[in-house]
Batch of 2 targets.
Target 1
Amino acid sequence: MIAENQRLIRVRDTDDELTCIVCPIGCRLHARRLDDGSLEVTGNRCRRGVAYAEEEFSDPRRPVTGTCAVSGGEFFRLPVKSSKPVAVDDIPAFLNVMYELEFVAPVECGAVIATDIAGTGIDLIATMSMREEE
Ligand code: SF4
């Protein structure tokens, strides 16, 4: 399933269309890598669109969310998220480690429950409090 998900994240061509997701306007951007290495971006209403396109072409990242096993709690799975967006190439390793982790209730929402997942330097955050089973 992880390899299947990974294929959904397309590597950008040197000339590509993309939608800026930095704000709700969602400008439709056209970005093209020039011979001097710079990126020409059109369709953006502000400079943040240029920065977004640069990152998408050079170092695309995505927030990672999922669930981890938890014992002794009111539920069997604990919702979690990455503390920062993860580089697309690191997401399979990040998910493999994340799905192997097991925690013990109680867990507080917002707590850092694991650090430096798969050597990325990115931590794992609980997104729900898990009380002990009564
Ligand atoms: S380019 Fe600027 S205005 Fe357009 S979606 Fe991105 S952040 Fe919003």
Target 2
Amino acid sequence: MHRREFLKVSTLGAVGAGIPMHKVISSSARGRTQTTTDELKVKEYRMLGRTGFKVSDISAGEHQGNEAILSTLLDAGVNYIDTGESYGRGRDERVIGQVVKKRDRKSVFITTKLYLSKDRTKKSIIERTRKCLERLQTDYIDCMMIHSAQNVGTIKEKGFHDAMSELKTEGRVRFVGISNHGTHWGILQPEEAMEKILLAAAEDGRFDVMLLVYNFLAKENGEKVLKVCAEKNIGATLMKTNPVADYLYFKSEVEQLEKEGKDIPGYLKKVLPRYEQLVEEAQEFIKKHNLKNTHEIRDAAIRYALNNPHVHTVCATCNTFEEVEAFLKLSGGRFTPQDKKILAAYAQGCGIFYCRHACGLCESSCPDHVPVNSIMRYNHYFVAQHREKYAMQKYSGLPTAKADRCLDCEGQCEAACPFNVPIHALLCNAHHSLTFA
Ligand code: SF4
Ligand code: SF4
């Protein structure tokens, strides 16, 4: 849906067009239910740990540099924006600057992030932060995070902390944070998991906010981190809260090849029988449990994440106005017994197809050091978040062995997966999608 169509059918679009909310009741973007004005407002705010700022339970994650989408979210009451220096190579920060400069700066909490690259000196970190401030057109950044900290050593980086101390004294940065979504196997060794890095960061005491992976299929590690965040009054923000949607993609790709009369590639033929059997079982399961569409499962998944009292906000990646509407409707929602049933059924029938974000347990069994978890994360961007170009760029930029190594491999990683993910097939397919789409 484009903004013009959204303006026609959506309450929020109407607000964007200057039509008072209370006058509008429209059909929802999904076209099945009536969406009321109240449903499309933020309904709950939570204290972001020791920052003292009350954040909306649904917040603005990556928005692909789309000013209209970000404005719409803020108009609805979203007041936490998560971004990064690298998002669109500064494009997202520029868009945030354009949107926020027209508003009361104090009404919004902006978090941005820096990867700690080779140059980790205080001087370089200060210079990069000043560029973030310029792009964001603001005098201060509420929270500056280390982007995807790669190991426990990273959280102690002297250059970063010295830079932050100076910028805090100047009033340019208010709080410091850290994000992590899994290992960078093959780039840095030894492997260090999200849980280990974030627990060490909590212990370190200098981090006020965290951004971590937590969802109903990848919950144990996140729960440990969230508990410690609560004990230490650290703000807890979430990403990758919706693990649903990957498995059907593989099947539809095979169907498409058959429809077009094209040959099924050799690597697919090799792994197809096992995969097809799993998909068949999953579909039986979906029928039996009446799991009609992935929207229902996604909504239950977000409510599951927000149901954890230690979670302060879920960062929503919104590429379309349908997604904006879908996320806003979840604000203030409660996790219901029906949600519990849906997620349990999904986990039992389809959980096998989800390579857990921030896991990486199988990676040490790969003789070629293929970064399984990173590749499957890019595949998730491609398949579940429909960010095809971005996913392909990330994959192409991997400095490690890629999943082409998997095409002629026996798949040792699969035996090492405690969740029985058919990872060999998924990796072969991810390589195909991320390379040739
Ligand atoms: S395949 Fe299994 S063990 Fe490997 S990263 Fe994915 S979930 Fe973890
Ligand atoms: S399929 Fe083979 S090459 Fe690919 S990650 Fe697994 S063990 Fe490594």
